[in-house]
Design goal:
single chain, 537 residues, alpha+beta, eight-stranded mixed beta sheet, 19 helices, 23% strand, binds flavin-adenine dinucleotide
């Protein structure tokens, strides 16, 4: 809370080169790129960082194999390159994963064509991943007995990548790296609109926790409000060449379907790719693609039933999955880009709409709007925004700085060496499916050294604090100091993924949760605990 309080004061007191509105993936990379390159940057989000679309994705960093069908070869090539960049830059956070895909008999394309497509996809990705493999029915039965083969002609396995710790944590790590480079960020701060006064933007902001209003002054304004980008442009009077339409997608988190670390891939009844994605001891199943008019969406009974029916139809489960098996739900809208004045596509064309991002720039007012995009493309988005901002006349004294990526391998080696010397892995919780040393590095990189020091000083810091989870006492202390946890949900849903993988009633009863609240919120612990369970009964 101290970090946020201090940043709120600085937001009102200083004058910035750039204010970024929106702390989803696009705003987070904008802030990380610009502050790394030497601009003075402010970042605000009216919710928590990654509290909207960027916490509801499929967690894939992928080249978009499905866009081969709509012949968007350029997009697939670009996304494959973006995926490879992420794999190279984040060797512990973005990991290759195999997609185990089955093809229905009578599928809309002959298996040979799909097989050829998988090789083309692999080549578009510069053969950076393991090559595709054909799956006979016998191989499917042997390797994934949970997949019912009665309806399948065979299948194929190919590679892409996924975000090991979830989209929201991945986004927060950009926000943290922006703050490490001087960015002044605050969650739960809403932009109420902005005016251009004497060559600078004056943005009216409201602290949603206290209700207090104040002004933020900046030379340039970056609108990264995601699905609310059009609404924010209306508030500031900016006209753009593009606008958003919305596609709703849901996922259901259920008990683990298969222990193999790969994504089971099917074609759902509507012809779209449909995934069962590993999430530790859980599986995340989805998604859907429904045109909606508003970004504010919820999972409906029909959505739930669609996902359950489709997965049950394609798996050999002893007992079919029902609503009682659903541990958590995720639901968001993909902000898709169309030309302003142009109509959105209908019917099948809707599913074929491009997922490319667009950045509209108004050099006269030093205003920039980001439309669409994907987590996969985030490094490019950060670089492009920095180039546009520099072209508006904002000085970037370290323009060549590499603002993204994990620390140099030698830093990781040193960390692992220290971890070995203190036998860190002996503290790994019996419930954890991963060694403690790799988990701490992936979640904290440089900051993991501080955790080692704390555990060396006091081994109690390596105890799991919240029963039924992996999170250690020292991690909660670090979250308090470094991760701007303002509400309990920020920690349970986004800094960690507890709320996605543990049932609500178990979280509530978990030993240690109140102690975690006391560390995070001090005298407000009980109020924050009650607030969370009132909102999530
Ligand atoms: C179901 C689904 C699956 C997906 N799967 C993938 C995938 O596997 N891989 C992939 O690469 N991409 C995927 N995507 C796409 C990706 O998640 C989105 O493109 C991306 O998260 C959009 O990020 P954003 O920053 O533009 O928007 P958001 O994450 O929505 O961020 C915008 C932020 O702006 C804030 N904001 C709005 N108005 C204001 C205001 N007035 N003041 C302050 N803050 C404001 C909001 O609170 C919000 O946090 C998926 C999307 C969905 C919905």
């Amino acid at each position: 809370m101290q970090l946020r309080r201090s940043n709120l004061g600085k937001l009102a007191a200083r004058r910035f080169d750039v204010l970024v509105v929106g702390g989803g993936i696009n705003g987070a990379v904008a802030a990380a790129a610009l502050s790394g390159k030497g601009a003075s940057v402010a970042l605000v989000d009216q919710r928590d960082f990654a509290g909207f679309t960027s916490q509801h994705s499929s967690n894939l960093a992928w080249g978009g194999i499905k866009y081969l069908e709509s012949r968007e070869f350029g997009l697939v090539r670009d996304l494959c390159k973006s995926r490879n960049r992420l794999l190279d830059a984040y060797p512990s956070r973005v990991l290759p994963i195999r997609f185990f895909s089955t093809l229905d008999r009578g599928f809309r394309f002959p298996p040979r064509l799909v097989w050829a497509g998988a090789w083309l996809y692999w080549l578009f990705g510069d053969a950076r991943t393991a090559p595709p493999r054909w799956l006979s029915k016998a191989t499917i039965e042997r390797e994934e007995p949970v997949v019912g083969t009665a309806r399948y002609a065979g299948g194929l396995e190919y590679s892409d990548a996924y975000l090991h710790d979830n989209d929201a944590r991945f986004v927060f790590q950009f926000v943290r790296s922006a703050m490490d480079r001087g960015c002044i960020a605050a969650n739960y701060v809403e932009s109420l609109g902005a005016q251009r006064v004497d060559g600078e933007w004056v943005t009216r902001a409201r602290d949603r926790m206290s209700g207090a209003e104040f002004e933020i002054r900046s030379t340039a304004l970056v609108n990264a409000a995601g699905p609310f980008a059009d609404a924010h442009n209306a508030l500031v009077g900016e006209r753009t060449a593009h606008r958003h339409v919305f596609s709703k997608g849901i996922h259901l988190v259920v008990p683990r379907i298969t222990s193999s670390p790969r994504i089971l891939t099917f074609f759902a009844d509507d012809g779209r790719l449909f995934f069962a994605i590993p999430m530790g001891m859980r599986t995340c199943v989805g998604t859907t693609d429904t045109r909606v008019d508003s970004p504010n969406v919820d999972v409906t009974d029909a959505d739930r039933q669609f996902v359950l029916d489709n997965i049950n139809k394609r798996l050999n489960l002893k007992t079919p999955l029902t609503r009682d098996d659903v541990i958590a739900e995720r639901c968001g809208v993909r902000p898709l880009v169309v030309k302003t004045g142009g109509a959105a596509a209908d019917g099948d064309d809707w599913l074929q709409m491009s997922r490319r991002h667009q950045i509209d720039v108004n050099p006269t007012t030093a205003h920039l709007s980001v439309f669409g995009g994907k987590l996969t493309d985030c490094i490019n988005v950060g670089d492009e925004i920095a180039e546009h901002v520099a072209a508006m006349g904002v000085a970037l004294p370290h323009a060549g700085y590499r603002w993204y990526g994990e620390p140099h391998p030698s830093v990781r080696e040193e960390y692992l060496h220290q971890a070995r010397l203190m036998d860190l892995d002996s503290y790994t919780s019996p419930q954890s499916i991963e060694r403690l040393s790799s988990r701490l590095w992936r979640r904290y990189d440089q900051q993991a050294f501080e955790l080692l020091a704390e555990i060396r000083e006091d081994p109690r810091q390596a105890e799991v604090l919240i029963e039924g989870t992996d999170y250690l006492r020292c991690e909660i202390r670090l979250a308090k100091q470094q991760e701007m946890v303002t509400r309990l949900e920020d920690f349970l849903r986004r800094r960690s993924k507890i709320a996605l993988v543990v049932r609500r009633e178990e979280i509530r009863a978990a030993k240690g949760l109140m102690e975690a609240c006391e560390i995070l919120f001090g005298s407000e612990a009980k109020a924050k605990f009650d607030e969370y369970f009132e909102e999530h009964p």
